[in-house]
Amino acid sequence: MSHIVATDGLTKRYGKRAVVQNLDLRVPTGCVYGFLGPNGSGKSTTMKMLLSLVQPSSGEVRVMGRPMNRATRRRLLADIGSLIESPPGYAHLTGRENMRLVQRTLGLPEGQVEHAVRTVRMHQQLDKRVRDYSLGMKQRLGIAMALARRPRLLILDEPTNGLDPAGIEEIRELLRRLADAGVTVMVSSHLLGEIDRTATMLGILSGGRLIFQGTRAELLAASTPDVLIDGSEPERANALLQAETGSRLDGASVRVPGLDDKATARAVALLVGAGIGVHGVRRDEQSLEDVFMDLTGGGGL
Ligand SMILES: Nc1ncnc2c1ncn2[C@@H]1O[C@H](COP(=O)(O)OP(=O)(O)OP(=O)(O)O)[C@@H](O)[C@H]1O
User: Fold this and answer.
1) Is ipTM > 0.90 here?
2) DSSP 8-state class, residue 102
3) Which uninterrupted H or E stretch holds 10?
4) Minimal CA–CA distance to 33: which of 20, 15, 22, 46?
5) How far is the CA of 190 from the centre of ligand 1 (A)?
6) Which architecture, in CATH terms, is 3-221?
7) Protein residue whose Cα sits closest to atom 8 of ligand 1
8) Where would one find the signal peptide in this protein (predicted)?
9) What is the DSSP letter of 86?
10) How many whole angstroms separate alpha carbon 192 and alpha carbon 199?
């Protein structure tokens, strides 16, 4: 599989503190890559290193098969569109004037800029000043600016931040359309729910480390859902299991986290051996959100 972005041991230290540690990112060409993690986990710093806006302390970034560094940056950036932190654009100018600036700066044909504006469905809002735009409109104009150069790779840092549900859905739909048109999109969020249905690959960052990278199905498979045990004496059963497994009472059931099949059989044998009647053992249904919360410890989510 070809990767449009690949990093090896990518690390950023500020003073003694490593804010991004040893990342081996693999972004397959043509996917929507959801880059998830709580606030402060290092997503923006990583994206800035991918764009060579921040110099890595160690490790390597390869984009489109080439090393990204100060020397190669200019050429590689010609094929990358990005939106990092607040939306760009001069507030006192209209959308059209801002787009014209982008066109002139990059020396682009007019049709290309118009196509970018239509893609984000902003063509009817272009004569308003940017300061009168809603946040969603500003984000969409920012994405149009990033798209104007017809990038192969689009890097978007929290494009849904601060948007209402309708605005979030618009961005989601836009990302899907871009992916269908062959653009690889890397998009960060601190909320799994904002991108999990759009992203085909997920990378999860926690405390500067990549704690998961793979598909949604792989993420679900990587988790061990809690086991719920129903029996004749839930309190005594919980007391027997608690020290070793961290179990707790959940209604009339005993909820036991992190048990694989063998450990489940051992727990049941222990209870039966202690004279407790076990009449039900089942695995809890787990949502992707539960798995994400488990992995990141729920920090900042
Ligand atoms: N220039 C800098 N100097 C020192 N520390 C920094 C600098 N830039 C970022 N950090 C620290 O690095 C950590 C990661 O920040 P980063 O912005 O990459 O996280 P994030 O996951 O994008 O979070 P957020 O969504 O809140 O922006 C934070 O603790 C931040 O304070």
Assistant:
1) yes
2) H
3) strand 3-14
4) 46
5) 13
6) 3-Layer(aba) Sandwich (3.40)
7) 45
8) none
9) S
10) 10
Q: Which amino acid is at 105?
A: T
Q: What is the whole-number distance in angstroms between the Cα of residue 68 and the centre of ligand 1?
A: 21
Task: Take residue 11 and report the two structure tokens written for it.
Answer: 């690390």
What is the pTM (predicted TM-score) of this model?
0.82
Q: What is the DSSP letter of 129?
A: B
How large a percentage of the chain has pLDDT more than 70?
Answer: 98
Q: DSSP assignment, residue 189? A: E
Looking at residue 76, its pLDDT comes to 94
Helix boundaries (H) for the chain: 43-50, 73-77, 95-106, 110-119, 135-147, 165-180, 192-195, 216-221, 234-245, 261-273, 288-296
| Contact by Cβ (8 Å): 126, 96 | yes
Ligand 1 is surrounded, with C-beta below 6 A, by 14, 19, 37, 39-45, 190
- Is the confidence at residue 5, as pLDDT, over 60? yes
Q: CB under 8 Å to 143, separation ≥6 — which residues?
A: 81, 83, 120, 154, 156, 159, 171, 174
Question: What average pLDDT does this structure show over 9-25?
Answer: 96
The ranges assigned to domains in the chain are 3-221, 227-285
Inform me whether the pLDDT recorded for 288 exceeds 80.
Answer: no
The CA distances from residue 158 to 8, 35, 37, 114, 208, in Å, are 24, 9, 11, 25, 17
